[in-house]
TrEMBL record:
Record carries keyword Metal-binding: no
Source organism of this protein record: Roseivirga pacifica
InterPro entries (alphabetical): ATL_DNA_repair, MethylDNA_cys_MeTrfase_DNA-bd, MethylDNA_cys_MeTrfase_DNAb, WH-like_DNA-bd_sf
GO biological process: one example: methylation
Name of protein: Methylated-DNA-protein-cysteine methyltransferase related protein
Amino acid sequence: MAKDHSNFFNDVYEVVRLIPSGRATNYGAIANYLGTKGSARMVGWAMNAAHGMADVPAHRVVNRAGVLTGKSHFETPTIMQERLEAEGVEVVNDKIKNFDKIFWDPNTELAL
DNA sequence: TGGCTGACTTTCG
DNA sequence: ACGAAAGCCAGCC
């Protein structure tokens, strides 16, 4: 399982893994951090492969509005919200409450 | 080799 | 303020 096979996917996994508990980020931030800012979709795609990895908390990755867009891709559409609430994140209507304060930007937190 | 798809984002109407 | 369309890159057929 060499990480050099797909740098893009691996990078996404690492960034998502670096997301601290009780925090969440969005696809655009990760894409921007990786340099592929134009392809925020690809981040989601990478997560599609990442959802098979337990080490990748995909539930901490949401869209720029803080909505749990990818919840449907989990084992169950409720897993994402359940896990976020378990982390201490308030979720209402499949949307993260106070997303503005729990938002975790790799470009800022990792201090590029 | 060429073209479609995709867990997004931004902008024009 | 809401709706629809374009743009982006990388994997997959």
